[in-house]
Amino acid sequence: MQTTFLGKILHTPIVLASGVLGNNKAILERVWENGCGLPTMKSIGPAPREGHKNPTVIDLGNGMINAVGLPSPGYLNMEEEWQELSGRTFPINASIYGGSVDEFVRVAEFVSAKGPDFIELNISCPNSDKHGMIFGVNAQSSHDVVAAVKKVIHVPLIAKLTPAAPDIASIAKACEDAGADAICAINTAGPGMVIDIESRSPVLAFKKGGLSGPMIKPIAVRCVYDIFKAVSIPIIGLGGISTGKDAIEIIMAGATLVGIGTAVRYRGISVFDKVTNEISDWLAAHDTTMEKIRGAAHREVR
Fold this sequence. Notes:
Blueprint: E1 3-5, E2 8-10, E3 14-16, H1 25-33, E4 38-39, E5 57-59, E6 64-66, H2 79-85, E7 93-96, H3 101-112, E8 118-122, H4 133-136, H5 139-150, E9 157-161, H6 168-177, E10 182-185, E11 189-193, E12 195-196, E13 201-202, E14 208-212, H7 217-230, E15 235-237, H8 244-253, E16 257-260, H9 263-267, H10 271-285, H11 290-293
Parallel strand pairs: 3-4, 3-16, 7-8, 8-9, 9-10, 10-15, 15-16
Antiparallel strand pairs: 1-2, 5-6, 6-14, 11-14, 12-13
Helix pairs in contact: 3-5, 5-6, 6-7, 7-8, 8-10
């Protein structure tokens, strides 16, 4: 099921969400071989960062809550990974983060020179003290960081947004106006909290964390729906996508590509092939195509 995205031909419309796996060539190649059209690297930061102490991830049954905390070796300490990835036969999306516009620019310029196919700006992490939502909840700051990064990179730029934004459509429009080539929506929802009533304390070491998995799919669908009405650039829709029917739903909301993250835990590494096949089966059963159903929810008369 080939899909063209920003001039690049992908063998499926399925994207691996950032932060689920890692930056190792072997694992990224494995998800690609299992039906992922575009593997996204774990977010790369401006300096070495250990992330939060354990416990960092809790399975809630209908989703997960995590406060991993953006662990990263730092962009200057990944030469071995970049050397391995230079010989790849598959596309990659490099996710980056920073605590200031200057940090974003510095990391983006360096990473762009390493030859990823896309760069994704993580301006939407809900479980870090310093990074992420300080940009993604404000249209002006989102515009500023996208515009600054766009000047120093030579690959398409994707802005990853947070559902915590009061008006995510206006954030997406600000990113488009600043030069973003695509929008990725959404990052984890929250922050949320889980308290152990026996110990009377938060379960996560960081206390609060981002929610992912099936529980947030309706939020993701609504966000993509709102963004589609506001921008003309393509959207990667993710958040709680576990099945082909989930994917069809978010495509009807306006997504061009479909991201998968938490579902890797629930359905295994073959989830990419499974969802691709489920999409194909649904399209065949309804005698239609992805192009025909994209944004279809906006055309429905109720």
